[in-house]
Structure formats: C-alpha cells, structure tokens
Design brief:
By secondary structure, the chain is an alpha/beta fold. Strand 14, helix 43 and strand 15 form a beta-alpha-beta unit.
C-alpha cells in the first residue's frame, strides 16, 4: 500500500518528469517496460497511448491505470521510472521501497509474437538504426506492403517511435511476420554490423543533382524577391520573423511557432494528408517566409530531413499553357539534371518522404481549386493546374510533403479536407516592427526617429504589423518624419505616400511642392492603372511587352520603379514585368477606377458587388462592364476561369474608398472634374450602405430569453474597413443606426490592429451598448489600444487567444474604468502574468457594477491571486470569476477564498487546473459555508485529496443553494470517489 501512496503523492512530479520535455519518449519507454514485464496487456497499452491525444492526458491515464492495478504494478512502474529517467529528472522523486531490478525475461517464449512483447525495450533499441533493412525483409517475405512501410517511415516520428510502430504492425500481421523480424535482428547482430551503425547513402547522381538544385535555390532566395525593386536587399540583412500560429482546427495548444514547425509534426490534424497550408492576408509575408525556408534548406542550415526541395510560383505557373507531366514540371520549372534524369525521377518516386514541394500564391492561380479531375500517374501529361491540384490532394506523389501559401479567402472547404494542417501567418509583432525598421535603416539615429514617429501614431503602428506596409513606411521615412499632423492614418494614406516618394525621386521639377506632383505624373498613373486593372480582371500578375504596349506603358513609366522585371520569366528575347507587390497592383487599379474617364459608370457598383461572388457562384464576368473591349467573348472565357481574384478586388475596393475620402479629394482637383468625383463618392457611399444593410437583414430574430446576436459574415469586416478608409463619420453613423443587436460576434475573422482601428471608428457610433466578441484573432496590445474609442459602447469584451500582454491590459482597464457600460471581460489564452492583476484589482475596487472576470489559461501565480484578492474583497457586484489553467496553488486559493467568503453576489467560480491541494479546498469550503449566491464551484484537475473533499462535504451540509462542485481528476482513489459521491450527490467526479 505504501508504494501506491508514493505514486499518488508524487503524481504532479511524475507527470512533469514524463511530459515536461514535450517528447513522448519517456512515457513510451515506461510503457515498453510494463508491457515486457506483463504488467500491462495490449488493451491497456492502447487505452493509454491514444494517437492525437495530449501527452499529459496519456500520462495521467497511465498513472490511474497503474494505481488501479495494485502494489506490484506500482513498484514496477517506479522501477521503470528510475531506470529510464536521466539523473537530473530523478532528483525530485522518491523511490523509497522500490528495490526491483528490471531484467529482460529469459524464460522460453512459446511464440514469436510473445517475444515481441517480453523483449520490447531491447528490440526497440536494436531496431532504431535499421528500420529500412527490417522493412525490406518484411516486404521481401510479402508480409508488408509499401503502404505499411510508409506508415512506419513517417518522418514526423523519431527513430524509436518508428521502431515501435514497426513492432506494432508486425504483431498485427501474425506469428510468421514476427519470426522474420526476430531473425533479421539476430542475423544483423551476428554479422558484426550493429543495427545502430547502419547507414544509407543516396546514389551519386542524386547527390550531384542535390548540389545543383541547392545552388539554384540559393541563388533565387538570397535577395528579397518581394517589394524589393532594384535595391537588391539581402534576405539575411532584412528578414524578420513573423508571428506563426496553428490553424483554428488544430488539436495542439495555440501558441507561437518557429519556421521549422511549418513542416514539423506539431499541429497535425490529418496524418494521412501531405499538404501544409500557410495562410495570411496580402502583404503579411508569405512569400518571404517561403523564401527564407528555401534559403535555409539550400545552405544546409535547416529542413535537412528533405534531400530535395522543389520551389514553385503559382504566378509563374499561370503562364504555362502546355500540358506537362510531373517529371517535366519538376525539372523544367526548378532545376534540370545534367544527366540520369530518369534515375533521379525514379529516386523521387521511391523516396517521397525525402522530398519537399512548395507552392507560393495559390490564390493567384487563374483556376480555383477543384478535386473533380483525379490523376494518379506521374508520367501522364495534364494541364499544370490539374497537376497542382492533384499534388495538393495527394493523388499524385503521395508521401511528398507540400507547403502551399494562400490568402484565407481563397481556401474553401474542398481544399481544407486535404490538408495535413493549417498554419496562420499574422505579420510582425511589435518587437518584429522594431527589428525590421532597425534592419532597414543601418543608421541607428534614423531608425530611432522612425520608431518614435510610429509610437506617437498608433494607427500607423497598427498598419506596420503588415510587413509590406512596414517596408513602405521605412522607405518613406523622410516623408513620414516631415508630415507632422498629417501623418498617415489609413492604408490608402500609406500607399499615396510611397506613390509620392517614387514620383518625387524622378520628378523633372525637383522643387515641386504641394499637390502638383500627381498632375505631373497623371499619364503614368493612368497607364499603369489600366495595366493593373486589366490584370486583375483576368487574374494576370505578370505582364509581357505586348501587355505593356496595349496599355501604352512606356519605358519612362517603367523607370518609375512600380514595375520590376521578373527574373523567372524574362529571357534575352522577351521581358516580363510584375508590380512591386500584389497590393501595389490593386492600388494602381483603384487609381484607374477613380481617375480614368474610360471606366463605365457601373465600375464602382460592380466592384463592390464582387464581395458576393463566392456565395452566388458568379465569376469575374460581372467586371466586363467596367472596361470597354473589342473582344467581349475572349473576356468572358477569361473571366469564367476563376473566382480566386475576389480578395484582390476587395483590396481594390478598399483603396477606391480611401482615394475618394474628403481628405484626398484636393489631390484630384486638377486630374478629374469635381462633378465626376462627387458622383463616384456617392456611388461608394451607396454601395457601403447597401452592403451593410444586407448583413443586418441576415441577423436572425432573437430566441426568447436570449440576447439578439450577430455573427459577422466574411464581407462585414471588409465593409467596415472601407468605411474607415473613407473617413466619413456620416457614413459610419448611418450604417450603425440600423444595427440593433445585443452581441456582435467576430471570432476567427483575422482581426488585427488594422481591423481594430476600423472597428472602433465605426462601432463607436452604435446607439445601444453591445457585447463585442473578438476571440481567436490577432488583436495584440496595439489592437487593444485601437479599440479604446469604442469601449464606451461595450458592455462585455471577449478577447480569447489574441496575444495580449500585461501592457495591453493596463491601457484597456485604464479606459474601461471610465466606461459606465463596461461590465464583463474574458481573456482566456493570452500572455497575462501577475503584473496585470494590480490593474484588475483596481478595476474591481472602482467599478461596483462589474459582473464577470475570466482570466483562464494565462500565467498567474499565487502572487497574482493575492493581488487580485485585494480587489475582490472590496467588490460587491462580481458574479463570475474564472481563473482556470493558471498556477495559483494553495496559497492563491486561500487568498481568493478569504476575499470571497462573505460575497453575496458570486454565482460561479472556476479554479480548474491550478495546482490546488487540500489546504486550498478547505479554505474554499468557507465560501460554500457562508455564501447565499454561489451555485457552481469548479475544482477539476487539481491535487485535492480526501482531506480537502471532507471539508467541502461538511460545508455543503450547511448550504442547499450550491448546485455542484466539480472534482474530476484530483488525487483520489476509485474507492474514495465512489464513497464520497454516495455521501454527497452534488460532488461531480
């Protein structure tokens, strides 16, 4: 019995020792030993080692199982821990009374499958270095198929995990397969070639090709390829990490990722799929991230699990009109082998797990993703988009890892079902902005001035979370530092700043001041604008000399720097050009719509109607009325090819809104008639009003007894941004006067600081208070600051999983205290520490009408709990307090209990997963004993023993008002749980 108590007493320390590294290796080694000793049967093993389940959950399952099996199993378990744990991790554990020496069972085994279990630890060790040899032996003996081998060889598994998977597969194949593996291991040892010394070298021709491919990839990647123009910025000098997070459907805990995690195992939701999607808004750095990945691989600095890497640009694939096979696609678009092409391609087919494909800009492909046309043969020719779609969905080159980048709007459910996982790229953090600006300006004095200017203009700071906008601001630092009160506020402001920057560098009137710069370069704007607009209409992002001639683009226009020559597509015979960045193409298209006399009057309404294109199934043919053409039939066929350009046209519409703002109309005074300009302003205002009304009409009627709620549709945030770009408070007031809801839900809407600025600008005009739910976005501290202007209208604010720190909370609460309506806040899964609790304490002392505070899954300790308790003691209104998933311990629980024991308002309290033991439980029992309002107390996943539960039972005897006390996953035996559940039915185990 003593050994069982020892396991129970050290439960937290044992869990930490098994799981703290993040690797399952220690847990799996213990399982191997318990299986070999016969203490676990195969069904026990499967119940513990559940694929996809959290490591800590599997470890807890094992501890529960070990204790339930009795003294002998507990003793063996401790002996196994003592054997496998490094000395440093054993230091905090006691193994008193554990004198067993674990030895491999030597007695005769009646079957080979039994031997696989009884000798499992040593077999795993022996197999780690010779997985391929063992698999070959099984394939030769016809016990394994290639699919079985692929299951074992998955690169996400460590060598020891691959060995265990092999043994598990062999066991399911029967006695003969087990004999083959045991015989192979014995022969390997007898031959004097230890299994763990077996090495494998690729064929010489493959290694030669790898060297050539690496050289080619390195040459393409060493200079920044996006928005760099001709300045040849070294990627090493300018690259700054963006914020990477797992997609919303990931089973892993949300948090920041490193670049290698993109192709790693973390966040995997579909083990059978090969494709990883990196999604993010335009300008957020997707292409640069892939470029960095390519360069690290080419240099041998990372991603060395992949022998060959093939990078593709969807923009370039757009121009490929002939049918190709996979072999032609690889060698013609990436790197052609000098010799032995067939042998190299066969190697790729035979070793898919050593190959990585990357596809940049799926949203720029003319064709939308489809899985209707299946293709399985890698030597069969097909249109390039068909090859691409079949590669992504796994019909072609199964087992090859593929990384695809795209904007979120272009990725529908048809594609998502083929994804291994999704990774979200969120742009720069505040530290990232600081780092990028310092890298861009070698002169530290200039960098400091730019950063100081950004800090004084938080709207601009929010814009700089987008790397492309951060680059523009850095390029235009002289204009930025000299504009004083006129500092940019909107995305349109920033792009106009770079427009002026480029033109003034090429102006014939070097002394030009004021607004004349645009009139001087109007022809260039219209030429490039028409080219940009035509390109968007046909999903064309790369332009030939002929395309330029058609739009009257001259050499002088090219020299302005907005168009750069495409190295990939240009040759000695022909040149191809592209805009500095895709958003720059959208900006010039917007300039053309605003300034040109050649666009039809329906151009603006058609542009704004495109938000519904995906929902209605329409294609870009509705843009036909925007531009006269002599070949209407050709336009129609181009338009029907795609619906993927919708995001680009939405960006264009946003720019149109900004260009027509009152602030910028003086710019157009000499470029376009006032009457035409006013008409276009009215058109945009009508489109925005009509679009908002459509969203409001979609709001369902409130269910009786519940608040009326609106869950934002995809286009809602875009319309809000358009209204903000126009900077017309009249339009914002008109829109919000028609919105009558109690709760506005904007979860998973890619809300960053830019969107927060726009939301606050519009929502501050709401007539009635609203609950604002922004869970699972990228608000961050800067976004929080941008929301402050609409805080007075928020009665509740939900900001779960938004990378918010103590600094953001300090500013939020300083404003919230002044807002009469503000009564509830939820901040689960952020980056809060004890430093924020003094601000919450002050809030609770000051606002005696505050109702709900939820701070779950942050980094609050007992010190933070004590600080919070000071505010709780003086508050007489709080009804809901959630602190689950922190680390307040017994001391923190005692402080909370002392502050709340006389509360007459508290209804619900959660301290789940806080390391609370019996001392904390006994203190919390005083709340139950004295409270007349408490209904639910949550103490799941803590360390409460029988002593603590006895205190809770005694308190419940004096309180019939409490409905439930949740105590699942505490340090209680099955017998204790059964006994106490019978004594008190309100205890939930």
């Amino acid at each position: 019995m003593f050994v069982q108590e020892l396991v129970l007493k050290q439960r937290t320390e044992i869990l930490h020792a098994l799981c703290s590294s993040g690797s399952a290796e220690h847990l799996e080694q213990v399982l191997d030993i318990l299986l070999s000793q016969g203490e676990l049967i195969w069904e026990d093993y499967q119940n513990v080692q559940v694929p996809g389940r959290a490591l800590y959950t599997n470890a807890r399952q094992l501890l529960d199982l070990v204790r339930a099996k009795g003294v002998d199993t507990c003793e063996l378990f401790l002996a196994a821990l003592k054997q496998i744990l490094p000395e440093a991790q054993r230091a905090g554990l006691s193994f008193s009374g554990c004198c067993l020496n674990l030895e491999e069972k030597k007695e005769y085994q009646s079957t080979s499958t039994q031997t696989l279990l009884t000798q499992r630890p040593s077999l795993v060790n022996k197999l780690q270095g010779c997985i391929d040899g063992a698999l070959n032996a099984l394939v030769t003996s016809e016990y394994f198929t290639s699919a079985d081998c692929d299951e074992v060889r998955l690169p996400i598994h460590t060598p020891s995990q691959q060995a265990r998977r092999l043994l598990d597969h062999v066991r399911s194949k029967g006695e003969s397969a087990a004999e083959v593996v045991l015989q192979y291991i014995q022969q390997t040892q007898e031959s004097g070639s230890p299994a763990n010394q077996e090495t494998w070298t690729p064929p010489k021709e493959v290694l030669k090709y790898q060297k050539k491919l690496s050289s080619s990839v390195s040459a393409q990647s060493c200079f920044l390829s996006t928005y760099g123009g001709t300045s040849h910025m070294s990627l090493d000098d300018i690259y700054t990490e963006g914020q990477l997070e797992l997609g919303h459907n990931s089973v892993d805990i949300h948090g920041s990722l490193g670049l290698e995690d993109v192709v790693g195992s973390v966040g995997t939701v579909n083990e059978e799929a090969d494709t990883v999607l990196v999604s993010g808004e335009a300008g957020v750095g997707k292409s640069t991230l892939l470029q960095r990945l390519h360069l690290l691989w080419a240099r041998g600095a990372a991603f060395q699990d992949f022998l060959l890497l093939f990078p593709f640009s969807c923009r370039r694939l757009n121009s490929e009109d002939k049918e190709m096979s996979v072999q032609e696609l690889l060698f013609q678009h990436c790197c052609w082998p000098d010799r032995e092409q067939e042998e190299i391609f066969q190697f790729i087919l035979d070793h898919p797990h050593l190959i990585l494909f990357t596809f940049d800009g799926l949203d720029e492909l003319k064709q939308s993703f489809s899985d209707e046309h299946r293709l399985c043969c890698p030597t069969q020719r097909a249109p390039v988009h068909t090859l691409l779609f079949n590669l992504i969905q796994g019909s072609l080159m199964k087992g090859v890892r593929k990384v695809v980048t795209s904007r979120p709007e272009a990725v529908g459910p048809v594609l998502k079902k083929h994804l291994r996982k999704e990774v979200l790229l969120k742009g720069f953090s505040p530290n990232g902005i600081d780092c990028f600006v310092k890298k861009h300006h070698k002169d530290s004095t200039v960098a400091a001035k730019v950063l100081e200017s950004l800090q004084t203009n938080t709207a601009l700071l929010g814009l700089c979370h987008s790397p492309v906008l951060c680059w523009i601001v850095s390029q235009c630092h002289k204009e930025l530092l000299g504009c004083g009160e006129g500092s940019p506020q909107t995305i349109t402001d920033v792009y106009l700043m770079i427009l002026q920057h480029f033109f003034q560098h090429h102006s014939s009137l070097k002394s030009t001041i004021g607004l004349g710069w645009l009139q001087e370069h109007l022809k260039t704007v219209l030429h490039l604008g028409q080219l940009a607009f035509e390109g968007l209409r046909t999903s064309c992002y790369m332009f030939s000399d002929t395309d330029l001639e058609t739009c009257d683009v001259t050499e002088k226009d090219i020299c302005m720097g907005f168009l750069i020559q495409s190295k990939e597509m240009s040759s000695t015979h022909s040149k191809h050009y592209e805009f500095l960045h895709l958003t720059m193409q959208c900006f010039f298209a917007a300039l053309y719509i605003v300034l040109s006399n050649n666009t039809e009057r329906a151009a603006i309404p058609k542009l704004f109607e495109l938000q519904n294109m995906k929902e209605t199934g329409l294609s870009s043919t509705c843009l036909m009325a925007c531009l006269p053409s002599t070949n209407q039939q050709e336009q129609a066929s181009d338009g029907e090819a795609t619906a993927a350009e919708t995001p680009n046209l939405q960006i264009t519409a946003t720019f149109v809104s900004g260009l027509l703002s009152q602030h910028h109309r003086s710019l157009w005074r000499h470029c376009c008639s006032s009457a035409v300009m006013e008409k276009r302003v009215r058109q945009v205002a009508r489109c925005l009003s009509k679009g908002m009304q459509k969203h409001f009409k979609s709001i369902p009627q409130a269910v009786e007894g519940e608040k009326k709620s609106m869950h934002a549709m995809p286009g809602f945030v875009w319309l809000i941004k358009c209204i903000y770009e126009m900077q017309e408070s009249r339009i914002a007031k008109d829109a919000m006067s028609k919105l009558e809801v109690d709760h506005l839900k904007l979860t998973y809407c890619n809300i960053g600081p830019v969107e927060c600025t726009a939301l606050a600008y519009v929502l501050q005009h709401l007539k009635n208070p609203v609950g604002l739910q922004l869970d699972n976005n990228s608000v961050g501290d800067v976004g929080v600051e941008q929301l402050l202007p609409c805080m007075h209208i928020c009665n509740s604010l939900h900001l779960r999983n938004n990378n918010i720190t103590d600094e953001g909370i300090r500013k939020l609460l300083a404003k919230g205290i002044q807002c009469h309506n503000f009564q509830k806040i939820a901040l689960f899964n952020n980056k809060l520490t004890d430093a924020c609790t003094q601000h919450f304490s002050h809030l609770l002392k000051t606002k005696q009408d505050f109702l709900a505070l939820r701070l779950g899954n942050n980094n609050i300790t007992e010190e933070g709990a004590k600080q919070l308790a000071q505010g709780l003691k003086l508050n007489h209104s709080l009804q809901y307090l959630g602190l689950w998933g922190n680390r307040i311990g017994d001391a923190g629980a005692e402080a909370i209990a002392s502050a709340l024991e006389n509360s007459k308002t508290l209804i619900w309290l959660s301290l789940v997963g806080n390391g609370v033991g019996s001392a904390g439980a006994c203190a919390l029992a005083n709340i139950i004993k004295n409270s007349t309002s408490l209904e639910e107390l949550w103490l799941t996943q803590n360390q409460i023993t029988r002593t603590g539960v006895e205190c809770l039972i005694q308190a419940l005897e004096h309180n019939t008002h409490v409905k439930s006390v949740w105590l699942r996953n505490n340090d209680l035996s099955l017998e204790e749980v059964e006994e106490m559940a019978q004594r008190e039915s309100r205890l939930i185990f």
